[in-house]
Amino acid sequence: MATELPISTENCIVEQEGHVLIVTLNRPEAKNAFSPEMLLGLYKAWRLLDEDDNLRCAILTANGDTFCAGMDLKAGAEQRSTQEFMEVMGKVPNVHWQALLRENRPCKPLILAVEGYALAGGTEILQGTDIRVAAEDAIFGVTEVARGLYPMSGSTIRLRKQIPYCLAAEILLLGEHVTAQQALDFGLINRIVPKGQTLAEAKKIAEKICANGPLAVKAVTTSLRQHTEHLSEDEAMLKSDELAGPVFASKDAKEGMRAFKEKRPAVFTGE
């Protein structure tokens, strides 16, 4: 049973279910377009995920029939920020980029559950997640160029690294919609499920992640996040080894090997 946490905001519900953080965009009347309240909730959720050792992964989903339409073009520059959001931004100037997973991504797995349209910022935040589940009628697209805008959340950098360059160029330069099947074929998402089943599928994935050694999962996620193409292979290998050492020296590693020998499920404690 999920418990709502006090860091929730009007436009972003943050819940905990066991070791899983469930983050739900909650502005369906505006197609879950970003608002200061939504960004504030996302920022708080990702920082909690990083800081709380009891949390092992997170699911990002949304209420309503649209996952996220990105920036609120109707409100535009007139959209008012709440006092709390402005106070946080005064201390953390990149709070919006952290919220949208462009910067300082949490070093724990992020699972995406998309129902309906995920356009512009909706597909940009997707690129900050690790495992992506979409409904069969989901629609994606980085559509900024069609509005004379630029995708500021990192798609020109990340998308070409996550899928073939020519497909990334097609998505970014045409600004057209991409079906769930096309997204799967491109390698942009992991799997397609029937409409209404994405959250249930994401929870199944989260359950499998939570059954694994949390120290090992965090170390692998950290390596995926940090050891990117700017490092040579030799440099990346050395940094990977630095992460591996504490994992192999942990109680969890001993428990995992003991459980394998005794043919039973391992009981990991994160130690």
From TrEMBL:
<dbReference type="GO" id="GO:0006635">
    <property type="term" value="P:fatty acid beta-oxidation"/>
</dbReference>
<dbReference type="Pfam" id="PF00378">
    <property type="entry name" value="ECH_1"/>
</dbReference>
<comment type="similarity">
    <text>Belongs to the enoyl-CoA hydratase/isomerase family.</text>
</comment>
<dbReference type="InterPro" id="IPR001753">
    <property type="entry name" value="Enoyl-CoA_hydra/iso"/>
</dbReference>
<keyword id="KW-0443">Lipid metabolism</keyword>
<protein>
    <submittedName>
        <fullName>Crotonase/enoyl-CoA hydratase family protein</fullName>
    </submittedName>
</protein>
<keyword id="KW-0456">Lyase</keyword>
<dbReference type="InterPro" id="IPR014748">
    <property type="entry name" value="Enoyl-CoA_hydra_C"/>
</dbReference>
<dbReference type="GO" id="GO:0016829">
    <property type="term" value="F:lyase activity"/>
</dbReference>
<dbReference type="InterPro" id="IPR029045">
    <property type="entry name" value="ClpP/crotonase-like_dom_sf"/>
</dbReference>
